[in-house]
Amino acid sequence: AQSVTQLDSHVSVSEGTPVLLRCNYSSSYSPSLFWYVQHPNKGLQLLLKYTSAATLVKGINGFEAEFKKSETSFHLTKPSAHMSDAAEYFCVVTSGTYKYIFGTGTRLKVLA
Amino acid sequence: GAGVSQSPSNKVTEKGKDVELRCDPISGHTALYWYRQRLGQGLEFLIYFQGNSAPDKSGLPSDRFSAERTGESVSTLTIQRTQQEDSAVYLCASSLPGQANNYGYTFGSGTRLTVV
Fold first, then answer.
1. Three-state SS for B8?
2. DSSP assigned state of B9
3. Any A CB within 8 A of B102 CB
4. Per residue, what are the HEC states of chain A?
5. Do residues B26 and B75 make contact, with C-beta atoms less than 8 angstroms apart?
6. Contact A104 B4 (CB under 8 A)
7. Are A1 and A93 in contact (CB under 8 A)?
8. Is A53 on the interface with B (CB under 8 A)?
9. Interface size, chain A vs chain B, as Cβ–Cβ contacts under 8 Å
10. Which of A65, A64, A62 is nearest to A84 (CA)?
11. Residue B61: its pLDDT value, please?
């Protein structure tokens, strides 16, 4: 069975400071892991993905995530937050199938 | 088309009425998925189509929910006798066959359904 836990439902950061959104997963098989972002009234956009290649994955808009098997984590980071990063972020796990298991989301607020 | 298109973007309906939600996937994406996003929750899987067949309907919450797909293209999700707990954003996604695991889905913008 697979599951994913996003450890924070809300995160607030000041513009220009680092962002850390935490995600832990559980999977019986080698997982694929994704981060999606959802801006208000918009669809979900793929930020980045881990599919058993490099453990440090770079995505769009300066985001990156590191797959740590020993910690079963896939935290999303960005060195410097921008106002446009304010959105909801979803961590997703899947294990060789079409079905995605979504976390409950982390709402990121960026303060001026 | 260039992206996944869903219509309507918003729907308000009275309890007990039927509603139809439409999804137009990316051309060539034979895999199509419906998910539901209730307020404050993650997305819940509803149904998966490969071509016009639905090998996995396990997420449909009750027999009031049904979906079909024609021409390996447009899909319609129908909710009969809507209830207030059906209020949610219904998201459609598509992908190339067998590529969801490697490349991710492409999502539409969703239909926000409100049952009053």
1. coil
2. S
3. yes
4. CCEEEECCCEEEEECCCCEEECEEEECCCCCEEEEEEECCCCCEEEEEEECCCCCEEECHHHCEEEEECCCCEEEEEECCCCHHHCEEEEEEEECCCCCCEECCCEEEEEEC
5. no
6. no
7. no
8. no
9. 58
10. A62
11. 95
Say if A105 is an interface residue toward chain B (CB within 8 Å). yes
Rounded to 5°, angle at Cα A28 from A23 and A31:
50
| Interchain proximity A102–B31, CB inside 8 Å | no
* Distance from the B61 Cα atom to the nearest Cα atom in chain A, whole angstroms: 16
In this prediction, residue A96 carries a pLDDT of 66
pLDDT mean over B76-95: 96
Strand segments (E) across B1-116: 5-7, 10-13, 19-24, 31-37, 43-50, 53-56, 65-69, 75-79, 88-95, 106-107, 111-115
For residue B81, what are the CA distances in angstroms to A68, B90, B116?
46, 17, 12
**Given an 8 Å threshold on Cβ–Cβ distance, is B95 in contact with A98?**
yes
Mean pLDDT of B73-89: 97
CA of A32 to nearest chain B CA: how many angstroms apart?
A: 6
Is the CB of residue B23 less than 8 Å from the CB of residue B92? Answer: yes
Mean pLDDT of B67-95: 96
Instruction: Name every chain A residue with its beta carbon within 8 A of the beta carbon of B41.
Output: 104
Q: What percent of chain A has pLDDT over 70?
A: 99
CB–CB contact B48 A99 (8 Å): yes
- Rounded to an integer, what distance in angstroms lies between the CA atom of residue A104 and that of residue A81? 22
